[in-house]
Specification:
- With about 100 residues, this protein is of the alpha+beta class.
- It has 4 helices and 2 strands; from the N terminus they run αβαβαα.
- It has a two-stranded parallel sheet with strand order 1-2.
- The radius of gyration is 19 Å and the shape is globular.
């Protein structure tokens, strides 16, 4: 799930006994992920962070064949999360 989803959803259920694995990409979400990681560490949540300057787990370099397929899913996930405009309820009836 995204950092925003964690902030507004299951975060309240986290404790020092709940491990959290976060992946940090080098994009516009990095600032949000860094801030959330800092907050979780201050609350002594068992955080395991991949990527970024404060990562605690090994992370492959950008443009690596092992990670490219995963990072290509990020734009698709963002598109899926975008709010959709309500469907037009106007019914078109052909004239006879």
């Amino acid at each position: 799930m995204s950092a925003a989803e964690l902030q507004h959803g299951p975060r309240a259920a986290l404790s020092s006994r709940t491990p959290v694995v976060m992946m940090r990409l080098m994009d516009e979400t990095a600032v949000t992920v860094d801030a959330l990681a800092e907050e979780l560490r201050e609350q002594e949540i068992a955080l395991h962070l991949c990527g970024g300057p404060h990562g605690s787990l090994p992370w492959l370099a950008e443009d690596d064949p092992a990670t490219d397929p995963i990072t290509m899913l990020v734009p698709a996930y963002r598109m899926i999360e975008q709010p959709r405009a309500p469907a037009d309820s106007t019914r078109i009836v052909p004239l006879a």
